[in-house]
Design brief:
The chain has about 475 residues and is an all-alpha fold. It is about 75% helix and about 0% strand. The chain has 23 helices and no strands. The chain is globular, with a radius of gyration of 23 Å.
């Protein structure tokens, strides 16, 4: 059987062809939202974009096998995150049935002052993600609980989601056990702890500003502004229908310990789901068959109290399928754009702007933002611009920790803002809020790239060799290679 894959590495799409692919994707997203007024048909828009990209790739000289290979490459990247997302649906259902989420909501409503709720959500999620190194685990556990508490306190869901995500992605950037933190350091050839130390100069102020904004916004939700009768009915409904107590906090404790010990995220979700399911059977009196149905189709609350039932009827593997299919389609487009060299052609044009430190950092930020938008993956947005611009950092004698920091300041933090990307799809599925709604409230994701650009414009904290005692420098690496 003849090989139908082209091995000619000189085949490249034209700049016009690459721009046309991106332009069509932008047009489809604009038309979907502002002309058709449909926020939830992103899948079909992406499929149209894949079709147009495939046609342009064929015209450029690539074979259908090349195109299929790029699509499957994207699906391969999506496989593990989507498996984790499946188990998140199972975990949420099991934790509701076990009384874990009802207990978190019950105690949270009693302990958290409405005026400080959003501030508390940011800080708690920041600490949890710093300990676990996982924004996804934080959102699926503490995030879901905060969404429930916010509902009881009459705080808009989009605000609560913005606070949860702002806190969660802080740890995803800073924690030494985070995959994106280690990936960015590796891509830029920086020492891990030099990278973390460098990130505090951008992420630290961003967290402080975000927390302050949520603190002042939250002051508008004082105790007098909350419908106490509604909250009382919610508390009473939970107490009368669920076994609420400290034992219900066992599943999240198990998840936190396993995540801190760097157990695989997929294994953590499976174990957390099983612990929750076992407690539901043993403590809440749920039948094994019912528990399996809840894990598959989602938990259905039938207390007769409308506020309780609407809050606690959710989760399940099947409930995640909308998000999972979006992840696979979005990453298929990203893989196709990468393997047909569309992104490479676009980034090379941007590479002409990197003759000085200011242009280099600004170009890196916008290149990673664009890659995030068009590849649907923060990992691709870290790897491709980072590796393509490392020679420019080396030439200007800028430390690797500045390069790695910029990877995270632009790629990692903006991932939740892309509705068709892995991050956006995940948070929409877990928190049940559209990315279009929460993105304006996700302050840390919006502020961090601005701080990075301002530092570049005013040449602040852009260290060169000899200005900071980093373990790794590009000069040392050149000497070792020489």
């Amino acid at each position: 059987m003849p090989n139908t894959t082209t091995n000619d590495t000189s085949i490249r799409p034209s700049f016009l062809g690459a721009v046309s692919c991106i332009g069509f994707l932008c047009f489809m997203m604009f038309a979907q939202i502002f002309i058709l007024g449909e926020d939830w048909v992103t899948h079909i828009s992406l499929i149209f974009a894949i079709a147009v990209t495939a046609v342009i790739a064929l015209v450029s000289g690539f074979t259908w096998h090349d195109i299929q290979k790029g699509i499957l490459y994207g699906c391969e990247i999506a496989m593990l995150p989507m498996l984790i997302l499946m188990m998140v649906g199972v975990l949420v259902a099991s934790w509701i049935a076990s009384g874990t989420i009802p207990s978190l909501v019950y105690y949270g409503l009693q302990l958290i002052n409405p005026a400080y709720f959003l501030f508390t959500a940011v800080i708690v999620c920041a600490i949890a993600s710093l300990v676990t190194g996982s924004s996804w685990t934080t959102a699926a556990t503490f995030g879901v609980a905060f969404m429930g508490i916010g509902t009881g306190l009459d705080v808009p869901a989009a605000m609560t989601a913005g606070a949860v995500i702002s806190g969660a992605i802080f740890g995803d950037k800073i924690s030494p056990v985070s995959d994106s933190t280690n990936l960015a350091a590796g891509v830029a050839e920086a020492d891990l702890f030099d990278h973390i130390r460098s990130m505090f100069y951008t992420t630290g102020p961003a967290l402080v500003i975000s927390a302050a904004l949520f603190f002042f916004i939250g002051m508008g939700f004082d105790s007098g502004g909350v419908d106490t009768s509604r909250t009382d009915r919610l508390l009473q409904g939970i107490q009368e229908n669920y076994s609420v107590g400290l034992l219900a906090f066992l599943p999240p404790l198990v998840v936190l310990v396993l995540a801190y010990r760097r157990v695989s995220a997929l294994a953590v979700m499976v174990i957390g789901s099983l612990v929750g399911g076992a407690m539901a059977v043993a403590i809440q009196g749920v039948g094994i068959g019912d528990m399996m149905n809840f894990m598959n189709y989602g938990y259905v609350s039938e207390t007769g109290v409308e506020s309780v039932d609407s809050l606690l009827s959710r989760g399940g593997l099947q409930e995640m399928m909308w998000t999972i299919s979006l992840g696979f389609i979005g990453l298929s487009l990203g893989g196709l754009l990468e393997k047909t060299r569309m992104l490479e052609v676009l980034l090379e044009r941007m590479g002409k702007l990197v003759s000085n430190a200011r242009g280099l950092i600004v170009t890196h930020v916008f290149a990673a933002l664009a890659t995030n938008l068009f590849s649907a993956s923060q990992y691709i947005a870290i790897i491709i611009p980072g590796r393509m611009l490392v020679p420019a950092y080396r030439k200007l004698k800028i430390l690797p920790s500045v390069c790695s920091r910029t990877c995270e300041d632009s790629a990692t933090v903006t991932s939740p803002l892309v509705p068709w990307g892995l991050g956006g799809a995940y948070y929409m599925g877990v928190l049940d809020v559209s990315a279009w709604d929460y993105m304006g409230w996700t302050f840390l994701a919006l502020i961090t790239p601005v701080i990075a650009v301002l530092y570049a414009m005013f040449n602040l904290f852009i260290w060169r060799e000899g200005e900071r005692n980093d373990v790794n420098t590009y000069r040392q690496q050149e000497v070792q290679l020489g």
